[in-house]
């Protein structure tokens, strides 16, 4: 797997910021498709580098994460306020509903747990390598969806 420039969320390519409104609309449509409800929306900021839409489905609560600079989506357990730990989860029905509505790639837990030692980081710019050396992520998920400042 070769990761593209902007992977860290630092120095995103011009014009390639994820649109919170479009992402929220996709999540609302996908939630309705699986008989779920959007419960909250949190925009990306300086930290984290991803938008979050929380969805309630049956007895489960799922956080849908949209990378700020790349068309990548992941699912995680919802976090308590102030918690910077991301626990990735899979949700096949929600993934299918989202992929029917957008070209963004929904990443699986297996992909997100891939060790960085097994991916090609050569396309990242030097400032991104500085951030990687500083924060020392171990997996693709830790690199893509982070709280670095």
Would you summarize the structure shown here?
The chain has helices at 20-33, 92-99, 109-112, 126-135, 140-144; strands at 37-42, 50-57, 60-67, 72-77, 88-89, 105-106.
Describe the structure.
- Strand 2 and strand 3 (60-67) form a beta hairpin.
- Strands 1, 2, 3, 4, 5 and 6 form a six-stranded mixed β-sheet that branches.
- By secondary structure, the chain is α+β, with helices and mostly antiparallel strands.
- It contains five helices and six strands.
- It starts with 19 loop residues before the first helix and ends in a 5-residue tail after the last helix.
- The protein has helices at residues 20-33, 92-99, 109-112, 126-135, 140-144; strands spanning 37-42, 50-57, 60-67, 72-77, 88-89, 105-106.
Order of H and E elements: HEEEEEHEHHH
- Give the termini distance in whole angstroms: 26 Å
In total, how many beta strands?
6
Question: What radius of gyration results from the CA coordinates?
Answer: 15 Å
Query: Count of DSSP helices?
Result: 5
Profile the largest sheet. 6 strands, mixed
Coarse structural class: alpha+beta
Strand content: 15-25%
- Uncertain residue segments: none
Helix % is: 25-40%
Mean pLDDT metric = 92
The dominant shape is globular
């Amino acid at each position: 797997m070769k990761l593209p420039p902007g992977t860290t969320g630092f120095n995103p390519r011009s014009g390639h910021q994820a649109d919170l409104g479009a992402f929220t609309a996709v999540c609302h449509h996908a939630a309705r498709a699986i008989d779920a409800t959007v419960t909250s929306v949190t925009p990306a900021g300086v930290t984290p580098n991803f938008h979050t839409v929380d969805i309630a489905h049956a007895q489960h609560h799922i956080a849908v994460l949209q990378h700020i600079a790349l068309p990548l989506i992941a699912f995680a357990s919802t976090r308590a306020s102030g918690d910077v730990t991301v626990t990735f989860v899979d949700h096949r029905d929600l993934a299918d509903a989202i992929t029917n509505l957008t070209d963004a790639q929904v990443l699986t837990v297996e992909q997100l747990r891939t060790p960085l030692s097994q991916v090609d980081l050569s396309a990242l710019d030097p400032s991104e390598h500085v951030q990687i050396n500083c924060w020392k992520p171990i997996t693709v998920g830790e690199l893509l969806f982070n709280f670095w400042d």
